[in-house]
Write a structure and sequence with these properties.
Layout lengths: L14 H9 L7 H12 L5 E2 L10 E3 L4 E6 L19 H24 L3 E6 L6 H12 L1
Parallel strand pairs: 3-4
Antiparallel strand pairs: 1-2, 2-3
Length: 143
């Protein structure tokens, strides 16, 4: 007797379902990050991933150029002016504090990288849709 995969998913709206859903949100190798990486590789750029020795563990690292790229989700890093950066309607105090901590940490990481002589570029999740302008942005940053 086989167990259906759907039967293991908790009922929607329950705390168990929310925990199950949050456990599936990735920190590395997200779809937007993979798109940027494939684009860079196709254009002949070679890079390293998630350098633990640099502040913030940048997603993409170009050591010889001393440049890094962060691929940020608009919601998690609160991209200003983006419709994906809204605060959830439930538990607004919790989410406001959590997302504010994320943006504060991002600013600290960028400052630390700058102090070490690194240049950083942030690619937002919503920018991934326009591949042509993203390619231009990446080429300008890396040249």
């Amino acid at each position: 007797m086989s167990i259906r995969r759907e039967s293991r998913i908790p009922a929607p709206g329950t705390p168990r379902h929310r925990a199950w859903n949050m456990s599936r949100i990735r920190g590395k190798d997200t779809k937007p990050e993979l798109i940027v990486r494939r684009l860079l590789y196709a254009d002949g750029f070679r890079y390293r991933l998630h350098a633990a020795d640099l502040p913030g563990r940048p997603d993409i690292v170009f050591r010889s150029r001393k440049k890094v790229i962060f691929v940020h989700g608009c919601f998690w890093h609160q991209h200003s002016g983006c419709r994906n950066a809204s605060i959830p309607k439930t538990r607004t105090d919790f989410w406001s504090e959590k997302l504010a901590r994320n943006t504060t940490r991002d600013q600290v990481v960028l400052r630390q990288l700058c102090e070490k002589g690194w240049v950083a570029l942030i690619v937002w999740e919503c920018e991934i849709k326009d591949v042509a302008s993203l390619r231009v942005k990446l080429h300008e940053f890396l040249s």
